[in-house]
């Protein structure tokens, strides 16, 4: 009888402890808001396994979509992955937390050439996540022309054979470059200037997709397009018939960063996550799944020669690539123009 009571008490105690610990685990979480097709689930699972911190993962397809959800809401996200021009804008508006670098010792793995960009000279608010270019992909089985630039892609003969990023700032920059205008010179006058070109271009596009533009090319729904470098790298790794070309008119380089938005509910979990993904072996897993240009030089040492030779991940030579700057209020002119044109 006595032993039975002791066993029962032990069982109850075990249940209580289990309940308490699972509650403690559930209360530790991290709200990550990141681009789609940019971080493998295995990395999130690895973090949870090690720390017991549950990752709530939400995705977006453009910086503007991220801002539209981030800015009006009560602080909800712990981590975001803004591109350089958006870091610049958010810092100006005090919308990012300063990072406690003593919690991110693995920042040392980032190459010096990826630190201290003008949008955050001291890396006070941002750690480079991945960088890359935006370029042209051609299925050379289907397209025999020598495609060199945007003008060669957006031709009437390719109508309904083109995929383009569903990203207004991107598309506008391609038209600006084609007209010989700086990609950051966005004013009502320059917008007016590129309008006729975009009026011709947009109806030629079959698929607008920022999340996974590779899919339409893989399926054979389209034969060429303008996409993120990492998407092109996945195509090239699967089949060398997919060629990557940096547009002659001028190509765009993005630097995407990981940052903690102001008022984030779980800043400690956020710092732990940043440090975790900067481990070479973890960062390598990100490159394996999403082969962008990895700024983590220790992780690069773990990549295969084939991965390092992929021209869409690591373009050969020293191509001149341009970087977006914050264009302030003129950003609304872009959206207005594109809404006008797409609704035709
Ligand atoms: C990842 C998209 C890359 C982001 N799917 C470009 N800034």
Q: What's the short story on this structure?
A:
The chain is an alpha/beta fold and 344 residues long.
List keywords for this structure.
344 residues; alpha/beta; 7-stranded mixed sheet; 3-stranded parallel sheet; 14 helices; 16% strand; globular; binds pentane-1,5-diamine
Largest sheet: 7 strands, mixed
> Can you count the beta strands?
10
Strand content: 15-25%
Bound small molecules, deduplicated: pentane-1,5-diamine
**Average pLDDT over all residues:** 93
Global Rg = 23 Å
Question: What spatial form do the alpha-carbon principal axes imply?
Answer: globular
Sequence stretches where pLDDT stays below 50 over 5 or more residues: 10-16, 18-26
Helix content: 40-55%
User: For the terminal residues, how far apart are their CA atoms?
Assistant: 83 Å
**Helix count?**
14
Helix/strand order: HEHEHEHEHEHHEHEHEEHHHHEH
Class computed from helices, strands and strand pairing? alpha/beta
What does this structure look like?
- The protein is built from 14 helices and 10 strands.
- The protein is α/β, with parallel strands linked by helices and 344 residues long.
- The strands form 2 sheets. Strands 4, 5, 6, 7, 8, 9 and 10 form a 7-stranded mixed beta sheet that branches.
- α6 crosses α7 (188-201) and α7 (188-201) runs parallel beside α14.
- It is globular and about 55 Å long.
- The relative contact order is 0.19.
- The chain binds pentane-1,5-diamine.
- Residues 35-38, 83, 228, 254, 256 line the site of pentane-1,5-diamine (N2P).
């Amino acid at each position: 009888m006595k032993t039975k009571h002791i066993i029962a008490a032990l069982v109850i105690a075990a249940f209580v402890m289990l309940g308490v610990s699972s509650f403690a685990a559930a209360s530790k979480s991290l709200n990550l808001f990141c681009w789609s097709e940019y971080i493998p689930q295995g990395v999130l699972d690895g973090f949870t396994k090690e720390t017991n911190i549950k990752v709530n993962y939400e995705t977006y397809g453009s910086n503007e979509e991220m801002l539209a959800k981030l800015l009006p809401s009560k602080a909800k996200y712990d981590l975001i992955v803004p591109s350089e021009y958006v870091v610049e804008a958010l810092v100006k508006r005090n919308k990012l937390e300063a990072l406690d670098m003593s919690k991110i010792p693995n920042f040392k793995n980032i190459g010096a050439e990826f630190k201290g960009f003008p949008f955050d000279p001291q890396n006070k608010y941002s750690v480079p996540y991945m960088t890359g270019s935006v370029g042209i992909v051609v299925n050379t089985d289907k397209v025999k022309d020598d495609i060199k630039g945007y003008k060669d892609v957006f031709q009437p003969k390719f109508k309904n054979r083109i995929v383009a990023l569903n990203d207004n700032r991107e598309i506008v920059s391609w038209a600006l470059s084609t007209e010989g205008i700086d990609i950051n010179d966005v004013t009502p006058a320059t917008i007016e200037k590129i309008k006729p070109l975009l009026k011709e271009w947009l109806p030629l596009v079959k698929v607008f997709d920022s999340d996974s533009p590779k899919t339409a090319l893989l399926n054979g729904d389209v034969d060429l397009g303008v996409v993120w470098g990492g998407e092109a790298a996945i195509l090239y790794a699967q089949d060398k018939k997919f060629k990557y070309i940096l547009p002659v008119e001028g190509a765009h380089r993005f630097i995407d960063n990981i940052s903690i938005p102001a008022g984030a509910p779980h800043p400690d979990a956020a710092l732990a996550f940043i440090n975790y993904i900067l481990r070479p072996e973890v960062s390598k897993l990100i490159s394996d799944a999403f082969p962008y240009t990895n700024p983590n030089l220790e992780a690069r040492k773990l990549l295969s020669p084939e991965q390092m030779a992929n021209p869409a991940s690591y373009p050969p030579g020293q191509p001149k690539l341009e970087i977006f700057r914050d264009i302030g209020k003129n950003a609304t002119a872009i959206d207005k123009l594109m809404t006008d044109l797409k609704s035709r």
